[in-house]
Amino acid sequence: MADNDPKIEISLKEIYDEFRQLSSDIRNLVSKVDGSKAITDDHESRIRTLEKYKYAVPLTVIMAVVVEVIRFTGKG
Fold first, then answer.
1. CA distances for 47 relative to 33, 41, 42, angstroms
2. Max alpha carbon distance in the chain (Å)?
3. Using CA atoms, how far apart are residues 55 and 63, in angstroms rounded to an integer?
4. CA-to-CA distance for 67 and 75, rounded, in angstroms?
5. Is residue 70 a contact partner of residue 76, using CB atoms and an 8 Å limit?
6. Kindly report the CA angle at 38 between 36 and 40, in degrees rounded to 5?
């Protein structure tokens, strides 16, 4: 019965080749993750810049409109 069992032989060279390919794949993934991190950091800084003026710009517009209305009506 043991003679009918299929046997698989994997040489050390095959293991080494697979290891090298796996190492290369991991290196590629790491470089992609590093690139994504830089893009994410850039987006974060842009969003923070926009959020900084989120309340200042509408308030400035409202104040300018109020000043113009007062000036237009002649009460200022």
1. 21, 10, 9
2. 109
3. 12
4. 10
5. yes
6. 70
Q: Number of C-alpha atoms within 13 angstroms, CB side, residue 23?
A: 6
How remote is the C-alpha of 74 from its chain's centroid? 53
CA distances from 72 to 32, 62, 63, 69 (A): 59, 15, 14, 5
Instruction: Give kind and range of the element (H or E) at residue 8.
Output: none
The amino acid at residue 14 is E
| CB neighbour list of residue 76: distance below 8 Å, 6 or more residues apart | 67, 70
Give the tens place of pLDDT for each residue, 45-66: 999 988 888 888 888 899 999 9
* CA atoms within 13 Å, Cβ hemisphere of 6: 1
User: What's the pTM?
Assistant: 0.45
